[in-house]
Structure formats: structure tokens, C-alpha cells
């Protein structure tokens, strides 16, 4: 390593290691997910945004599959599995 990038005296303080940038979610993706959550919520109200988002993630953000899972009751087994983990 280059001497200016790594200084042994500060290595134990955590100052020598470069900070990794946080992975930021694009505002467009956040907007798209919120639209999908609203679409599912119109058909199956009474569920939290976090719960709907987890179900959407499980079904690869397919609104149709998520709604079908809610109507058939399949989301309960999936959410119990997540709670167990």
C-alpha cells in the first residue's frame, strides 16, 4: 500500500481504512416501490407498508403475484418464515 494511504499509528483507531459510501437507493426506485405498495394496498387494505414491501420483494416486485398471495393467504406462511429467521 502507498504510505500516505496507510499509517500504522492510526490503523488501530480506524482512521486509516477508507470509508465505503453507503448504498443509496435511487429516488425513482423508491417512488416505483411506493406506487406498487399503494396498488397492493388498494386491493388488500389493513396491512403495513413494511409487510407489503416484504411480500413484494419475495415476489420480485410483481404486484399481481403479491395481491394473489394476499387473497389466497399465502403471505402468512412467508411472513412467519421471516419472523422465525
Topology:
Elements: H1 8-11, H2 27-43, H3 49-58, H4 63-72, H5 74-84
Structure summarized in a few sentences:
The protein has helices spanning 8-11, 27-43, 49-58, 63-72, 74-84.
Helical/strand content category:
mainly alpha
**Strand residue percentage:** under 5%
Uncertain segments: 1-7, 9-13
Oligomer: single chain
Largest sheet: none
SSE series: HHHHH
Description of the structure:
This protein is mainly alpha-helical. It has one domain. The chain is built from 5 helices and no strands. α2 packs across α3 and α3 packs across α4. The longest helix is centred in the middle third of the chain and has 17 residues. The radius of gyration is 21 Å and the shape is globular. The two termini are 40 Å apart. The N terminus is likely disordered.
Relevant terms:
85 residues; mainly alpha; 61% helix; 0% strand
Amino acid at each position: 500500500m502507498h504510505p500516505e494511504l496507510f499509517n500504522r499509528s492510526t490503523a488501530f483507531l480506524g482512521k486509516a481504512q477508507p470509508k465505503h459510501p453507503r448504498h443509496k437507493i435511487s429516488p425513482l426506485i423508491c417512488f416505483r416501490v411506493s406506487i406498487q405498495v399503494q396498488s397492493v394496498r388498494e386491493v388488500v387494505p389493513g396491512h403495513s407498508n413494511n409487510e407489503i414491501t416484504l411480500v413484494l420483494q419475495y415476489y420480485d416486485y410483481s404486484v399481481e403475484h403479491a395481491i394473489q398471495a394476499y387473497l389466497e393467504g399465502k403471505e402468512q406462511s412467508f411472513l412467519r418464515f421471516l419472523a422465525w429467521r
